[in-house]
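Work Package 3 (structural annotation) set out to generate three-dimensional models for the target panel prioritized at the project kickoff. During this period the team completed the workflow that converts sequence records into discrete structure tokens, so that structures can be stored uniformly alongside our sequence database. As a representative example, we reproduce one entry of 290 residues exactly as it appears in the project archive.
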Amino acid sequence: MKNKILAGLITLLVISAPALAETTVDTTWDTNGYTDMSIDFYSGDDMESHFKTQALATKGEYHAKDYDNDPYSYGVDTNKAWLDASISNGGWMDFETKRTDSKISMYGNAGQRTYSKVYSYDGTAEMAFYTQTNYAEMGNCQYGKGTTTNGVNFEASGTGTEEFLGYKIYHELTDADEDGAYISAYGHGSAEVKLQGEKAGGKNSYYNMGSLKVCGDGCAWKDNYATFDGSGTGVFKQYAWADNEIDVGCPDCATGYNIPGDGSDNSAKYYLEINYAGDFSYDDFGVRGN
């Protein structure tokens, strides 16, 4: 299915994957003028995915698939959703996916969620993000998938005003117990976030936002790290919370470390805030917790 969305048109697509039938959705758009658009995809009781944008000009593509494969007869299908989109002249877009079913007896509860948003006051913003769910976990491996203009997953720029930010980037990952992590970057200028991979599952209620190993092997190479680059004046924030422990960076490397918890709700916490002016890079913001 392909849909060409005219400028200024408010479009709502709600797609539900029928039982016992593989369903693939391929939607493209290219508008020049104010656009308010949303896409909602429901794969039975296994996964749901939502995209929304309001912008003065936007183009992109959204893909989703229910494989209807029920591997190992666990009653849960494999599903994927992928977005590659941009806005210009100001606006915002967000992309959310939830894993809503699991082989509970072996892999714990469902409920994992990934959510991303990019905003620009008067410039551009882009998002390229892939997510997949199955009977065991949510896996958001970006290796070999599409990227933005500058080869990352999220980027935004904007001049803004004294009252309004020029841009903002937000990304969050949570597990079945709603433990998780988020990053937030905002300011006047531009910023880029590269996030090679993520995972979250119900067994032991774990999450991994870009901390090796997730799409690589050990403390491997810089391109496999979760990285941030900013220019202008801005703020980069990160927060993570868990019950048992949090690993920051690569704990097997000299730059990584562990934050223990006592098993009670959110007893392990990590918070980072960096204010910068000029050019700034943070080469490994990966975290994982359980």
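The longest strand covers residues 23-43.
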